[in-house]
Structures are given as C-alpha cells and as structure tokens.
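Q: Could you predict the 3D structure of TRAP transporter small permease protein?
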Amino acid sequence: MTRETPDAKGAQPRDPLGRMIRLVDRTLEAFLVLLFSSLVVVVVIQVGSRYIFNNPTTWTEETARFLFIWLGLIGAAYASGGMRHLSIDLLPVLLSGVARRVLLMALELLVIGFAGAVMIRGGYSLAARTLQTGQVTPALHLPMGWIYFAVPIAGAFIVFYALMHLVRLVQDRPMVEARPGDAPMSDQTLSATLSEDAI
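A: Sure. Here are the predicted structure tokens for TRAP transporter small permease protein:
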C-alpha cells in the first residue's frame, strides 16, 4: 500500500504570512464583537433607565460615546485590512501589469506614511500628554489618555495591513484573501484591483 504525498492529497503550500493575517483578523473580529456587544448593552441600559424607570444614569452616555470611538477606529483598521474603505479606483482599473502594481504600492506607502505620522506618532503623543496632565472623564473618572490610545492602536493595525499588502504586491499575489462572511462583489472594479492581473 503506497503512502499519499502532500501533492497527491492536494495540500496547499504553507503560507505563514496568510496565517499571521488571519490571526490578526480573528483577534480584531473578537475585539470588535466585544465592543459592539458592550455598546448595545450600555445603550439599552441608558434607554431603559431614562424612559422606563425615569431615572437616567450618568455613566451610560459617556461609556457609549467612548465605546463608539474605539469601535469606529478599530473597525476602520479592520476594514483597511480587507480593503473595504471607499476608494476612487479609476487608475487601478485602467492600468495593468507592472504599472498597476507600482501604483498600488505607492498608495500603500502613502497609507503607511499617514497612519505612521498622524495616527501612531501624533496619537501616541496626544495620549501620553493627556495622561501626564491627569485629565479624567467627567462621569467615569477614567484617564482620558486611555480613550485617545485608540488612535495609535488603530494606526498600528493599519500600518500592519498596509505592509502585508505591499508584501503580497511584491510577491505578485492577491492583496487580500476572502474573509468568512464576505458578500460577493456586485461589480468587478474592486475585484480587479485585488486580483493578480485581471486586466
């Protein structure tokens, strides 16, 4: 009886880069679910205390606002990993081959520059200065610096995803992989941008 080789079984080549991206994806997904669930619970408590028990709480509005800030920024970082942000893709669609890859690399470098300079460096500086001043939130009395740390953390994930996109472009591979639950594209513009050389 012969033993089957990995090729005979149709095994896929190892992709450590893909595994790392999927690990970050799953981590962010779990964190976003936690943030959104907490936001829903807090808003329900706020509405119930105000309109049912006629005894509005002071902490729910502030908590909901800060949860929404973290949800929006971390969600933006997650969306950047799947290239789900709104974009004008006229040039990537018109170009093909090496020219399109060079353009996409330049765009990713711009993303890295902005996220690194504004979000990571600027956001960290703002959060650190706020912690030094001892500023706290009115109702929860939490350090405001903790809230501002959402900016550099989100920026770090955006830089991570942009670097992964660059590596895949250098390898001449699709920039992103389909995530579980992703809806099929209704048009070919974005899929053309993400494919290897569709045009």
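Q: Anything worth pointing out?
A: Residues 17-176+190-194 form one domain.
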